[in-house]
């Protein structure tokens, strides 16, 4: 548990399901107040709010598209209106889809870059405006991926977006460190979320993925949530500008494991 997170106010984009939901529930356990963001499914967003309130903390759900300035501004304003402040911004919303690069449409490219990279920029910018204007030593966490460093055929748009998030995070961390504002990335590996459920339900595909993970298993959303609360807490007070990979060793060239190569 992290006492420094009690009564902190956290905005988490894309938090009605998957990693965002797991982070929201974990922050609630730490006593934080959460702004839940959903894109389309209001019922999922409200279900997370109910679970948080049942745990003894507080939350509100807000519809929003992270590619739209006004929607991201609404998320920050909701935090202020509902809970009086903003302490932590987590830019988690993300999308992916496999397409051979020579068939990748501009529409698909724009959707993935817009959600994953532009969304992280807009969320970071709006949080920074609030932190700077109010002299708050706030905290921004962006959701990157192992694919900020691992090329991924059929996912050129996704890998490009996460590479962009890496340097966005590092640049903002350097720029705002003198103000005590910390900016970091989380880089998940293969995690058992709804977006991956169909793939991991296939024993062969699951085994193929596990073979790329030195620790030999697919991660749980709760393991990413544990990373997020640490990065948001005072326990990581001297950490800024990093990508913390939570990937079971996937970024460590697993094909060379056991002396091969």
TrEMBL record:
Keyword Transmembrane (UniProt): no
A Pfam cross-reference name: adh_short_C2
GO molecular function, one term: glucose 1-dehydrogenase [NAD(P)+] activity
Gene3D superfamilies for the chain: NAD(P)-binding Rossmann-like Domain (3.40.50.720)
Enzyme class: oxidoreductase
Keyword Nucleotide-binding found: no
EC number: 1.1.1.47
InterPro entries: NAD(P)-bd_dom_sf, Sc_DH/Rdtase_CS, SDR_fam
UniProt keyword list: Oxidoreductase
Catalytic activity annotation: D-glucose + NADP(+) = D-glucono-1,5-lactone + NADPH + H(+); D-glucose + NAD(+) = D-glucono-1,5-lactone + NADH + H(+)
Family: Belongs to the short-chain dehydrogenases/reductases (SDR) family.
NCBIfam families reported for this sequence: PRK07231.1, PRK08936.1
Subunit structure: Homotetramer.
Protein name: glucose 1-dehydrogenase [NAD(P)(+)]
């Amino acid at each position: 548990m992290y006492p420094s997170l009690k009564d902190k106010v956290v905005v988490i984009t894309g938090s009605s399901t998957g990693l965002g939901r797991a982070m929201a529930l974990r922050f609630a356990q730490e006593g934080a107040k959460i702004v839940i963001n959903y894109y389309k499914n209001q019922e999922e967003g409200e279900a997370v709010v109910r679970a948080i309130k049942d745990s003894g903390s507080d939350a509100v759900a807000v519809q929003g598209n992270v590619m739209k300035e006004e929607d991201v501004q609404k998320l920050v304003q909701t935090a202020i209106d509902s809970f009086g402040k903003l302490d932590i911004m987590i830019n988690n919303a993300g999308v992916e889809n496999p397409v051979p690069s020579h068939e990748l449409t501009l529409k698909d490219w724009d959707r993935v870059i817009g959600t994953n990279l532009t969304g992280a920029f807009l969320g970071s910018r709006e949080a920074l405006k609030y932190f700077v204007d109010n002299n708050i030593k706030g905290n921004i966490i962006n959701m990157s991926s192992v694919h900020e460093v691992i090329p991924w055929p059929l996912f050129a748009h996704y890998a490009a977006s996460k590479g962009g998030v890496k340097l966005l995070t590092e640049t903002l961390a350097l720029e705002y460190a003198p103000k005590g504002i910390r900016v970091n990335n989380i880089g998940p590996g293969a995690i058992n979320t709804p977006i991956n459920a169909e793939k991991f339900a296939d024993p062969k595909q699951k085994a193929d993925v596990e073979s790329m993970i030195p620790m030999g298993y697919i991660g749980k959303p709760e393991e990413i949530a544990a990373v997020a609360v640490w990065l948001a807490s005072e326990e990581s007070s001297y950490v800024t500008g990093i990508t913390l990979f939570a990937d079971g060793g996937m970024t460590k060239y697993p094909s060379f494991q056991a002396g091969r190569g």
